[in-house]
Amino acid sequence: MKGSVKPGAGYPFGNAEGLQLALLVDTKNPDKVMEEVGVIHHMIFPDMDLAPLKRIFLDVLSLFDGNYPGYRACNIKYHDLQHTMDTLLGIMRLIHGATVSKHPFSQKEISLGLASALLHDTGYMQTVDDRKGTGAKYTLTHINRSIDFMERYFTERGFSKDDVAFCSAILKCTGLNVRIEKIPFLSPENEILGKMLGTADLLGQMADRAYLEKLPSLFQEFKEGKVPGFKTELDLLRVTPQFYTMTKKRLKTQLGSVDKYMGEHFRVRWNIEKDLYGIAIEKQIRYLDYVLENYPDDYRQYLRRGI
């Protein structure tokens, strides 16, 4: 028997405390994200100059907007600028939680970790003379392309070869099938930051308030990128709960359970004794299960949260 939720009525699986991750920072607004990154960073290193990071931030905004020399604007809807902002904020929160837990990083290590987050999906970008299709065609190769972009960008900005190697290792951790132990990290901190980026990449997208509504856009990216396994967008929705199960396993094994630091961040920054990412994702998956069970033929009518 079908449930009683009306199309567009919102998700019926809230949490008792009424806490919502999306209400803390509007990740659709890059300036708000950077402002919060600055606040958190100040809690770790009060005197650190964020100007170099803000330079990378502004260049990435220009890249996604189509104002960076030699590149077209971002033309995909899932791995868009908001996703990069979600990932940036996610890794900043993890870094903060780790420092609260007495796992310190140097200022330079944090800066390179944040820079990696900003540059981690630049491989989806098309050059101005690349007019065929969209950036989604690079889905299966975007990590290596992101590393290539980062290397060129760092070289132009005067970063060292060690900086390039440090960030290359971090970016490789976003690959879902990558064996972390095979990556040539430069230090234990390099490895932890890589695991943090891999974690922030996953948590950022799945905890997005409109994650379920964006899955059809992800299907289109997969289709153009020739990712096997999905004939329809409903196929993708149906395997998403399984993907979440696999994600939880990867977080605990390959990514070293660094997601545990989220709770410490929220406790210190917001006086909230909860991991709001975990709460948000569980809510998404419960609602998706509900829709697939009760409305498989008209599921889109029940995924209408504004994006």
What would you note in describing this structure?
There is one protein chain. The chain contains eleven helices and no strands. With 307 residues, it is an all-alpha fold. The longest helix has 20 residues, at 81-100. The chain is globular.
- Quote the CATH topology: Catalytic domain of cyclic nucleotide phosphodiesterase 4b2b
How many strands? Answer: 0
The CATH architecture classification is Orthogonal Bundle
Oligomer classification: single chain
Q: Assign a percent range to the helix content.
A: 55-70%
> Averaging pLDDT over every residue, what do you get?
93
Name the helix and strand elements from N-terminus to C-terminus, one letter apiece: HHHHHHHHHHH
- How many domain units? 1
User: By CATH's scheme, which homologous superfamily applies?
Assistant: 3'5'-cyclic nucleotide phosphodiesterase, catalytic domain
Q: What is the number of helical segments per DSSP (H or I, 4+ residues)?
A: 11
- Unreliable spans: 1-17
Approximate strand percentage = under 5%
Q: How far apart lie the N and C ends?
A: 30 Å
Backbone shape: globular
Q: What's the story with the biggest beta sheet?
A: none
Pairing-aware structural class of the strands and helices?
A: mainly alpha
Which CATH class is shown?
Mainly Alpha
